[in-house]
Amino acid sequence: MSERLRIALTKGRLQEKSVKLFEAMGLDCAPVRNPGRRLIHALPNYPLDVVLAKAPDVITYVEHGVCDLGVVGKDTILEKGGAFYEVLDLGFGRCRFALAVKKGSDFYGTYKTRRIASKYPNVTRAFFEKKGMDVDIIKIEGSVELAPILDLADGIVDIVETGATLKENGLEPIEDVAQVSARLIVNTASMKLYKNEITDFLSRAERELGGNA
Ligand code: PRP
User: Tens digits of per-residue pLDDT, 74-133?
Assistant: First the structure.
């Protein structure tokens, strides 16, 4: 008998594209398309329950094994880390982490310790450690673009998709930090326990992604 799997899906930006992919894989996602206030949805024609969650929680649920699978951005994976298998680049949700500064400012032209604002302090720390550069990191929760405008920071490390937000706020990217896209992650125990079920899901996804590449 086929075991019912549970997948944690990142709400928001990645949700629609994930649902489109699942539908192309033959999964009826009607319950997820009309979620109401419900957070868990059983798919009617495939042994899968979909849990809608915030990105960092997707990792927490998969790591703890209460969800077997997860769809989450590489940005969250890089920031939060964790023990799970990252099995597939889903190709959507493409953007990048970049270091950005006020347009025209000479970020590297001073010896004083730079202040960097970011929602992603771990990604920022790793980036500057690799360069051997000592920086002060300030964690910001909301629109991090404000920090250099308000002269709180010399630069920011943030997600850049179209570049419009930077441009409209007088900032410019000066260096790429990492490429980002949505990833399929799998709990390590589930991978062994539900090998057949996970293989079926994975091969459907791979077939679909391959066809669209
Ligand atoms: C992200 C990021 C930038 C913006 C970049 O924020 O923090 O502000 O998108 O996109 P662009 O290059 O296309 O302008 P998001 O809209 O995800 O909101 P958040 O602050 O809730 O993360």
Answer: 999 999 999 999 999 999 999 999 999 999 999 998 889 999 999 999 999 999 999 999
The structure's pTM equals 0.94
Could you tell me which of 10, 7, 99 has the C-alpha nearest to residue 46? Answer: 7
- CA–CA separation, 72 and 54 (whole Å): 9
Residue 94 Cβ inside 6 Å of ligand 1? The answer reads no
As a whole number of angstroms, the distance between CA 165 and CA 74 comes to 20
If one residue of 79, 143, 156, 161 were mutated to test the ligand 1 pocket, choosing by the most ligand atoms within 8 A of its CB, it would be: 161
**Half-sphere exposure in the Cβ direction for 104 (13 Å, CA):** 2
* 155 token code pair: 């630069």
Helical H runs in the chain?
15-24, 30-33, 55-63, 74-80, 121-131, 146-149, 164-168, 188-193, 195-212
Å from CA of 9 to ligand 1 middle: 19
Q: Is 165 in the pocket of ligand 1 (CB under 6 A)?
A: yes
User: Per this entry, what is the length of the chain?
Assistant: 213
With vertex at residue 82, the alpha carbon angle to CA 56 and CA 188, rounded to the nearest 5 degrees, is 110
Tell me how far CA of residue 14 lies from CA of 4, 24, 37, 56, in angstroms.
Answer: 23, 16, 18, 13
